[in-house]
């Protein structure tokens, strides 16, 4: 099944700007389960999307839906498979749109991007910091993914975080030069237009990867996730923040993770699918001529 359904003819990988990659990994969920169902539910719900979004018609730039990644087996092996598929999109200078699965999948994508781009940062939407060194004995837990990403030398800006451990708070304090955050309690500030006031950290590079855990949303907006936390983002607030980011930076890829479909709760599936499509539209708008050629040269 292809993203957006019958009204969007699937594009071959060479001509599609967007490569939708389903990675239904579910190995370390620590509260509610079901993230393995997330990618398929998002793709199914995308069949109900209108072609026209608030950000144009991203489908006009081509959408290729890759075969779902095999997420059985050890975490290291699964991450290697994700890295390979995302790397194929990067080699074609396309934008990977990774659908999780648990947040651990982001590490595979970042490893792939690191081979193709000289310098990029992560803008991380999440209720949780995901900066633990280990969780329940595993360094590959969803609760550790941003720690592993940061250890690769990737700068991170976290948005809407509101649940983290003392260990994670200490790690943030020790790494202020390359790890910043705008916690949910700091999202009340408004600019002159009445929108969320957002200043990206000075260390954030021109090129960014967006990692969006759906529990960044308030549970009233997105109940279909395993670890909901009150006090999250609403829909319009989220779009305003993303618009500000995309106005200042170029998106080289993104993921939407930790979605756990609830039977009969169609609005949640549709919300996740619309988020993916809106991210595509914003990514098209922020493309800078020649910027996608700033690569490391490593193939």
Verbal overview:
This protein has 299 residues and is of the alpha/beta class. The protein has one domain: Arginase, Chain A, CATH 3.40.800.10. It is 28% helix and 15% strand. The chain has 7 helices and 8 strands. Helix 1 links the parallel strand 1 and strand 2.
Number of helices, where a helix is a run of at least 4 consecutive DSSP H or I residues: 7
| Count of discrete structural domains | 1
Named at the architecture level, the CATH assignment is 3-Layer(aba) Sandwich
Give the termini distance in whole angstroms: 30 Å
For CATH, the homologous superfamily is named as: Ureohydrolase domain
Short précis:
The chain has 299 residues and is α/β, with parallel strands linked by helices. Helices cover 28% and strands 15% of the residues.
Ordered list of secondary-structure elements with their pairings:
Layout (H helix, E strand, L loop, with lengths): L17 E6 L14 H8 L17 E3 L9 H17 L3 E6 L4 H10 L5 E6 L19 H7 L4 E4 L6 H9 L4 E4 L24 E7 L21 H14 L1 E8 L8 H20 L14
Parallel strand pairs: 1-2, 1-3, 3-8, 4-5, 4-7, 5-6, 7-8
List keywords for this structure.
single chain, 299 residues, alpha/beta, Arginase, Chain A, 8-stranded parallel beta sheet, 7 helices, 15% strand, disordered C terminus
